[in-house]
Every structure is written in C-alpha cells, then in structure tokens.
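Exercise 7b. Backbone tokens:
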C-alpha cells in the first residue's frame, strides 16, 4: 500500500524530486548558467506536485517519502492558466524564473500536442513524474510506486501515459509493460524524449 501525500508534504515531496533529478541532463540544460539552481529545481518540481495534488494523485512508498509518483487524468494534463492558479503552481513557477519558463514553453508544447494526438478519444492517466531520492535509488522504491499505479489502473481498464528523457528509464518502463509510441528530439535543448504508454492488461 502506498502513502498518499497531504498538503503539508508538498514541500518535502518537491525536494525529493529535485534531489532525484539533480543529475538529469535535460533539466540541467534548462537551468545552466542560472543562480540558485537548487532552489529553482525545487520550485520546478513543486509545479507537478501541486497540480497533481489538486487534480490527480501524488504517492510515496511510505510517510518517509523515499520517492514520489505524481499522476493526473489525461484530460487535465494540459497547461491551463486557471488550473495553474487554482492549484497554486503560479508561485513556484515565478520562483523558478520567467526566463526559464519562457524557454520551456516551446520545448514542451509539442509533447502536449503529441499526447493529444496519441491518446485522442481515450481516457488515460498521465504519469507526470516519478522519482526516487538519489541515495535510495536502486532499492525498489520506483518499482513499488509503479506497480501500485499499474494495479490500480489495470483494474479500471485505463492506460497510463508518460514521457521520459533517459534511455535507461525507457528500459525500466518496458519491464512494466510500457511501449514506446514515439521518440522525439526536443527543440532548443536538442535532447531526446520517449513518449510511452501502457495499455491495461
């Protein structure tokens, strides 16, 4: 059984994800050359935590928050200013920096467009982010989170959709029944991204 985070867990959950992705080449490209990168990382990952807490679900393996999985119904996974306001993501977005936000918009809009096309006419769950604290990686926490989500949404007959920027993650997700729909190269940052889906069994 997973631990469903509550509102007071949001800062800690954001810090766990910032730590999990601290060496990720894609996110480091976005923040390269900026000051106070650690704080901006936390602000960046607070956004999916808040939006999924408000409109979806955010889980950890336990109250210790060894890792975080944040997911949201597919029809709510697209950027909308009113959802940003109501979920409180505007504030961490501003802390992240307007410059970085402007850089991200043209990079990730094509992924949203692909998601709409790939899942057109289907109900689905969007796995916005999954990460485990650096010192705990390789101990099965990511698998525990993913297996629980798969069991839940398989029972409901709902596919799970995600994007990942690392080939090693592609192999990880394939072990859990995900298949690659498309491999793209992100504009501006010139980085690969895999669009993947797991159909319910």
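Sequence design result:
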């Amino acid at each position: 059984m997973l631990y469903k985070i509550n509102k007071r867990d949001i800062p800690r959950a954001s810090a766990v994800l910032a730590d999990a992705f601290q060496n990720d080449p894609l996110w480091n490209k976005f923040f390269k050359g900026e000051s106070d990168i650690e704080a901006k990382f936390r602000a960046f990952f607070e956004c999916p935590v808040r939006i999924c807490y408000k409109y979806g679900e955010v889980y950890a393996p336990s109250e210790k928050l060894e890792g975080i999985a944040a997911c949201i119904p597919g029809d709510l996974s697209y950027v909308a200013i009113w959802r940003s306001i109501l979920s409180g993501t505007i504030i961490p977005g501003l802390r992240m920096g307007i410059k970085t936000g402007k850089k991200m918009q043209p990079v990730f809009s094509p992924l949203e467009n692909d998601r709409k096309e790939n899942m057109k006419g289907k109900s689905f769950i969007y796995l916005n982010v999954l990460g485990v604290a650096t010192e705990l990686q390789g101990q099965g926490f990511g698998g525990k989170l993913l297996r629980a989500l798969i069991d839940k949404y398989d029972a409901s007959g709902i596919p799970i959709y995600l994007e990942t920027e690392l080939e090693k993650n592609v192999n990880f997700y394939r072990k859990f029944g995900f298949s690659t729909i498309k491999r793209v190269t992100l504009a501006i940052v010139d980085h690969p991204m895999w669009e993947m889906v797991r159909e319910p069994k």
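Instructor comment: The longest helix spans residues 98-118. The first strand starts at residue 3 and ends at 4.
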